[in-house]
Amino acid sequence: MAMAGNKTQCFTCKKEKIIYPCKGCSKEFCLNHLTEHQQILNDELNHITNEYNECKQRINEQKQRSQYDLLIKQINEWEKNSIEIIQQKAQDCRKIVIEYLPTLFNDIEMKFNDLNQQIRQIHTENEFNEIDLNYLRNQLRKMTEELNNPSYMCIELNAHSFINNISIILSKSKFLPNNF
């Protein structure tokens, strides 16, 4: 004789049996299917544990061979390239100065020689007035200024960099504490 009062339908097999509730999923199972359900949950836990272990292994591998090496290598390469660019630019500027300065000094020297000729001629002819003296004084002052404050050549610093800027972008990990 079957006992009818305490049997309910199993979620899996849909048969009327003595059932056991699962508090996790709120479903009711017979003993056989409760055991299967528990095995499925165990399998899922094992799968999660395996994924965790694989992730932990990847973290350890990353720490050992690390992406840091790659990043440091890229920073070193950027530094080397930037130094080469600066050295080349400095060498180009030196070349301009070395090639151009003798010409400028020759021009100034020619102006001094010309002024010297004018001064000798005035001495020789002994005919001059205040206008001539002012002219000579102004010419001499201009040449002296040109020597003391050379406006023919200067260094101009350009605000637009010809070197690529480098920076490190840190994205906050979801796994780091908030105060990191």
From TrEMBL:
Coiled-coil residue windows: 38-81
Keywords (A to Z) from UniProt: Coiled coil
UniProt-recorded name of the protein: B box-type domain-containing protein
